Amino acid sequence: MLRAQVEQRLLREGGIGADNVGVEADRAVVRLPGSVATLLTRHRALGLADTVAGVRGVVSLISLNVIRRPDMDIVHDVQASISDDPALNGTAIEVYSIDGAATLGGSVSSQAQSRLV
């Protein structure tokens, strides 16, 4: 019963189906095996499972399916996000990407702007 409740919560509120993340329940401990594309989805699955009544613990066995993207695509997408954000208008932020890891350099005029980048 606990397993079904967690499965329903993941699907209904998180859009996370059993084809991506499975649910195993032993007493009040839930194990989530599977794989997802983003850290956000993994975090959401764990959080949703933890909110089901009767769950006392959640064990993550969720792996990430990391999709390799060309460095220039990453740089382009980050630059586009920065230029589309009105709060970062006028900033001089440089973007580099090596082996899929983006690095930002430059300066901003406020602490609020530094939290955005």
How does this model look, in words?
The strands form two sheets. A three-stranded mixed sheet has the order 1-2-3, covered by helices on one side. 38% of the residues lie in helices and 28% in strands. The relative contact order is 0.13. The chain has helices at 2-14, 39-50, 71-84, 111-116; strands at residues 24-26, 29-36, 57-64, 92-98, 101-107. The radius of gyration is 19 Å and the shape is elongated. The model has no long low-confidence stretch (mean pLDDT 90). It folds into two domains: 2-64, Histidine-containing Protein, Chain: A, CATH 3.30.1340; 71-116, no CATH class. The chain is an alpha+beta fold and 117 residues long. The longest helix is centred in the middle third of the chain and has 14 residues, at 71-84. α1 crosses α2.
Low-confidence stretches: none
The number of strands is 5
Strand content: 25-35%
* Distance N to C terminus: 44 Å
Strand-pairing-aware structural class: alpha+beta
Largest sheet: 3 strands, mixed
Total domains, how many? 2
Question: What brief labels describe this structure?
Answer:
117 residues, Histidine-containing Protein, Chain: A, 4 helices, 5 strands
In short:
With 117 residues, this protein is an alpha+beta fold. The protein is 38% helix and 28% strand. A 3-stranded mixed β-sheet has the order 1-2-3, with helices on one face. A two-stranded antiparallel ribbon has the order 4-5.
